[in-house]
Amino acid sequence: MVDFWNPVFSSRRAQLMRYVPSTATYNTSAPPQDKYTLGADLVAAVERGIATYGCDDASPEAEFVRLARNPNIFNDAYAKLETYIKGINNHLKNENGVLDYMRVAETRRRTFRPPPRSRKPAHPLAEFELTLPYAQKMDPNFEETWVMKSDGTVEIATPAKSVWHPRDNQAHLIASGCPHSQGV
């Protein structure tokens, strides 16, 4: 549920990739929800990362740990999604709201497969040029990054909220795995 309103190219979730352990253990004698250690190891690694980096309460790390430790996660997630959907429906009632969503869609399209005239490299999965059309009436120099907000509205991303893209900043993983998951 971290940054669920931006399901692709989320810089907040990309920040969490550095904590993913390189291995997990399967325990046959553990209860079904605890058979794999990946979940617990990931939470422990993020908690160590918070201590190491001094993350504030608004960081993706802090949000992730709050969600992981929340015993009422399903009801809280349902309430967040319900608020989000109501916000979208309200925003779609006017022309500017529709244009906002078109900007978000175009941002995501151009992040995945930039127009040829931009001379930027495409995402490695963008193999075929005709599979994803462009909004032809959008400014060809469209450089703003539009992202969704949790209330269903949109905003221009600031550099701190920039859209993650694999060609810009790969997840901070090393060959031996997450430095915060060692000894878990």
UniProtKB/TrEMBL annotation:
<protein>
    <submittedName>
        <fullName>Uncharacterized protein</fullName>
    </submittedName>
</protein>
